[in-house]
Amino acid sequence: MRIFSKLMFIICLINNIITHAQNYPQNYFRNPLNIPMQLAANFGAIRTNHFHMGLDLRTNSQENLPVVAAAEGYVSRIKVERYGFGNAVYITHPNGYTTVYAHLNKYFNKLDEYVKERQYKDEKWEQDITFQPGQFPVEKGQQIALSGNTGGSAGPHLHFEIRNTKTEECLNPLLFGFAIPDTVAPIISGLYWYDRRFSTYEPGANGIAVRRAGNIYTSNLVQVNSPEISFGIKAVDKANQGFNLGIYNAELLMDGKLIYSFKIDKIHYDDTRYINGCIDYTKFIRDKMGIQHLADLPGMKLQNYSTPNLTGIINLQDEEVHNIEIVLKDTNGNTSRLTTKLQLNTTSEKITATGKTVMPNEGKTISTENAEINFSKNAVYDAVNFNMYEKAEVDQNTVSNSLVLQNPYIPVQDEYTLKIKPNRRLSDAEKDKAIILLDYGSDKDVVKAKWNGDRAEGQFNRLGTAKLLIDNTLPSVSSGWAEGALVNNSSLLLKGTTKVGDIISFRAELDGKWLRFARVKDNFVYTFDEKCPKGSGVHTLKVTTINTAGNTNVQTFTFRR
Asked: Which residues form a coiled coil (predicted)?
């Protein structure tokens, strides 16, 4: 059995190389780690508001493993940021590709020293620095960093990308010939159909149970009451390592004819939010369920995803039984098939659009007595019967009615403008401390209000419940040591807190000079170095923080080294 599995892997790998050799160089890039490549996530996996844009490589739940250059080239860029990539290195290669390595703990020594000097020169921790080819050349296999868990990472791993240097499109790294064993076909756990006479959001998904026999799946006859439908599929790719990976390629056939397909070969970061038009967003946000549409939504404009001129919309002209086949493949060619039969049973009445319907490719302004929302023509992926209304608020810091904007389970592609009129006259000082809070259930977005006449304005890209507040509270940080205490730890940790909003500015000065603290989620960390060596005596740390509303707090701490 083991020999057979190895043989099947070799056959799949050869097929993969033959399939993609004309498009991408095979075996040019090496594994960026010195341990076998094991996937925690693949290219195109479903994430909140974006596709996963590279490979997440497991680091055995450890940090500080050596990260090496996947090929010769030069360090063309680094990033240091609170969320996102955390610490990242970009290497540009002579063959027209750029590789990206993210969530790092530390760069290699010379680069790390350069970045540190730049941070102290700019008196700014977050950085986005570009380099010339001769500054930091690297050889294939040269150590460039240590792996970590920085930025928007939920556990130790290495995020690895391959990009087209010219277009900056992210390419599927699994098409470049990496030897990652995979003999497991995608696993299907659900089939769904949607009434497409109006919108996929109303009434939503209709579930069909599926049965499995190996890599072949079947379901009972799908009887529908609409002559215009589309399908969605709930499935994951497992590879050989147990993690739920994204589906690479899907095809939908009716009576033997291909009517829709998608393949996730390349995506630009400018377009990655279009994932919300490729999935059942309501199911994903509300039920944590990943269902991918096997049809285009009218406002989904992601390039190089679905086959042109194949919409996936099924128009049933009769009440005959039709054969449906869904084929799912991974990059190694492992294939699963779902077959079923489809029949129009009875026709129900079409859902009627209302005057507040927001349509794809059309801008829309909707108003209540004290508020207004402005959608661009790119705002929605499918038609939305938009429900917007006001509710009275009793919180003394809230100076408007709460404004219900549909619900958090309908996506928007770009930012909309929200205008709210306060429920009383505000002084100039109050207007200066006004913020708009949007609660979308799983989290909150807070922006400083901009005033246009008697209305506060803010921009958001999610729906939920919004309100206008006056925030006079101060942000703060708390230390983990007693005043004047001897600190022998390797670092200083300050915990940041705000009553509402975020700490948008943090500045630390040690004995009057700027000190480099890293932002780790809501906390701030300084790792002791030559700026504050052991035995250097008593020190004063001055910390200045500013929150979303613009309130400033200055705190002073003392300690000994």
From this structure: none
